[in-house]
Amino acid sequence: MDSKSSSLKPEPEAVGAHCAPVREPPAWRLNYRIGAGACGMVFLENVHIPGMKSPELWAVKRIPRALPNFTLKRYQAEINNLQLLARHEWFVKFNSTYEDTHYMYIAMEYIPMGDMSQSFTDSYQWNESDTRVVIKQLLNGLVVMHKEGITHRDLKPENIFLYLPQNQTNVLRVKIGDFGTSKRIPPSNASTYLKTTTGTQSYMAPEAHDTSKPKTNRVDIWSLGCVLYRMLAGNLLFNDPVEVWKYALTASSLPALDNIGLSIPCVSFLYEVLQPIPEDRPSAEDCLEKAWIMGEVPELEYSIGKDLYTRLAKISHRAPNVHSFLDIVASQPVESSSVL
């Protein structure tokens, strides 16, 4: 590594067992790709470093330095946000970061099941009870984020990761990931607003499409509503900004809800979080007090139905584990595009 790139590295700041920036080039092979996005590719890597009792699988995001609009400042902001949230259970854990001449790397916890979108195959629709288990955990995460002054700005199924804890049958846990578009404005800074238009079209709030208007963390609440609808209906609520604009003009009802068979508290919750005017949407804390979120608490916390549990377990079992990974890599061409 040349001296120029070395000088760009952030100072080490340990936040957990392995959360300091890596000074020496890590022994990553980066030859098993598990994902790709606007900001780079994600590789699965077998890691065994001093301090580890046994090898672990990490997900390593590789970001090209030449990527348009992805500056060093933005990269360091993502690292800072991951570190701020590292001690909380609602977020994908950050392990380490590294830079070289051509790329910036972020190593994170690997979640075998992958993101929520994996559950939508075969037009699967979640039932209300199972959906509430996820939404409640997402709200807990949003409460933490928003108290830290962090707005995700791209909450969607592809950035929501699911896992089944070992030795807990029918229990589903949730983690929020990918903070590449997140923005932190300290709560004490009342004069600064979110200005940039960013996100994924089908999950973007009405104000996010208007470059002249400031944005607040209520954009995440709108996205949450769009995620909830996607889970329940099996399809997107809004396909483009025009549909969002048309809804924002009336906002008297959501016709798309008529044929899903939802309970009155669920419909009410959706209507409240999908208010076109951001000030009319409840905060994440307020959402946790809504009747639909508080109703029908399962005997075992975060428990889901057998049908969904069986479906997710099959997805998880197909994913590489630390024991099978080396054999899988040996049989794959370099940078295979295997999808978990």
From TrEMBL:
Enzyme class, UniProt record, top EC level: transferase
Coiled coil: none
GO MF, one annotated term: protein serine/threonine kinase activity
Membrane disposition: Peripheral membrane protein
Keyword Kinase: yes
Organism ancestry: Eukaryota, Fungi, Dikarya, Ascomycota, Pezizomycotina
Cross-referenced SMART domains: S_TKc
Protein name: non-specific serine/threonine protein kinase
Source organism (scientific name): Tuber borchii
Cited InterPro entries: Atg1-like, Kinase-like_dom_sf, Prot_kinase_dom, Ser/Thr_kinase_AS
Highest taxon of the lineage: Eukaryota
GO cellular component terms listed in the entry, alphabetical order: autophagosome; cytosol; phagophore assembly site membrane
Domain Protein kinase: 28-293
GO biological process: autophagosome assembly; regulation of autophagy
Catalyzed reactions per annotation: L-threonyl-[protein] + ATP = O-phospho-L-threonyl-[protein] + ADP + H(+); L-seryl-[protein] + ATP = O-phospho-L-seryl-[protein] + ADP + H(+)
EC number of this enzyme: 2.7.11.1
Key words, A-Z: ATP-binding, Autophagy, Kinase, Nucleotide-binding, Serine/threonine-protein kinase, Transferase
Localization, UniProt: Preautophagosomal structure membrane
